[in-house]
Amino acid sequence: MDFGLTEQQEQLIQLAREFGEKEIAPKVAEYNREGRLPIEIYRKMGQQGLLGITIPTMWGGRGMDYVSLMRVVEDLGYFCLVLSTLAGMNSSWTGFQLVRYGTDKQKERYLRPMCQGDIIIAVGVTEPQGGSDVATVTTIARRNNKGYVINGQKKWISYAPSANAFSILARMGETDNDTRLTAFIVDKDTPGLRISTFPRMLTRQVDEVSEVFFENCQVPEESRLGDEGAGLRVTLSGLEGNRAAYAARCCGGIRACLDEAVKFAQQRVARGKPIGRNQLIQTKIADMATNLECARYLTYHLAWLKDTGVQRATKESSMAKLFATDAFMKAATDAVQIWGAQGCSEDTKVARLFRDAKVHQIMEGTSEIHRILIAEHTLGYSH
């Protein structure tokens, strides 16, 4: 493996870092207090070419590799995990699905504007009954002479109020036992589409987490993404890349926790010396630094596998996502502990990092699910 950076990659990473310092850092505390998704910053990210790192240039992206994407996502995650999520998702999930399965018309309508920061496509997979087993979706799509009628409900959907369209998975309803799953892109202004937002979330409050209801939503056949019945393949196609992006932004979060912990440990004086001289504090700092490097290795190894053309890296993607998210939660917990009472104030960065860390152990497959996946691959039960 060679993680040496080209001049083009160095310039891109520097751009992401400077963007975070100039555009995100001065405003992140304010829009988190307001519980507001900063669409104006998202648009600027598109203008700077930070929303389509791996998307081909002919569709508005940079046409670069996954290692480059992970470096950008990590640096943006250092400043804001939510904006980092959008940068990763636009390239590795919704963007990837459109590149692989979208028609030219769909790419022109959705992919190019998404890379430019003009639209957001929210992912609608999770339902009230669960989310880890996507094959059990109960949202129904029935064919008619105008295309499809969709009925169902999605839950815990990020960015729904600000989204322009939704990438969803539905079960064909031709018969009661029809097992075919089909992917669709449904525009937000489709009659019958309704959004109900959860206003008081413990974590990542600017995510605009919502329920999305589809009540006799009529969509044309052109809204289908990929072939009828191929929805599971379409939906899961970008999963490994997106898990890598999850791990990468958690690396950014761990790095932020480490920097805040080091700063406070050097400045806070107790019993005549900085608390950083205390071995118990040093243990926490050492764990953060070590876990950061381990999380980075797993993340960039996975990105390297994707760049070399490996078709399936299920175990590696679960390992990267599991380790990085658990390490982020531990780092955030230790950072708050080092800050003490001050760390419990919502005005501190470590408090925000602590709140935001928790959901990463749940979204994109819980830590428990990933442990099962890793064990089954290691035992030879899954291939």
The CATH topology of the largest domain turns out to be: Butyryl-CoA Dehydrogenase, subunit A, domain 3
Approximately what portion of the residues adopt beta-strand conformation? 5-15%
Radius of gyration, CA atoms, in whole angstroms: 21 Å
Query: Count of helical segments?
Result: 13
- What would CATH call the homologous superfamily of the largest domain? Butyryl-CoA Dehydrogenase, subunit A, domain 3
Total DSSP E strands: 10
Largest sheet: 8 strands, mixed
**Overall geometric form:** globular
How does CATH name the architecture of the largest domain?
A: Up-down Bundle
Mean pLDDT: 93
The first-level CATH class name of the largest domain = Mainly Alpha
Q: What percentage of residues falls in helices of 4 or more residues? A: 40-55%
Structural class: alpha+beta
State the domain count: 3
What are the low-pLDDT stretches, counting only 5+ consecutive residues below 50? Answer: none
Describe the protein.
This protein is α+β, with helices and mostly antiparallel strands. The protein folds into three domains: 113 residues, Orthogonal Bundle (Butyryl-Coa Dehydrogenase, subunit A, domain 1); 108 residues, Butyryl-CoA Dehydrogenase, subunit A, domain 2; 145 residues, Butyryl-CoA Dehydrogenase, subunit A, domain 3 (Up-down Bundle). It contains 13 helices and ten strands. Strands 1, 2, 3, 4, 5, 6, 7 and 8 form an eight-stranded mixed sheet that branches. 49% of the residues are buried. The model has no long low-confidence stretch (mean pLDDT 93).
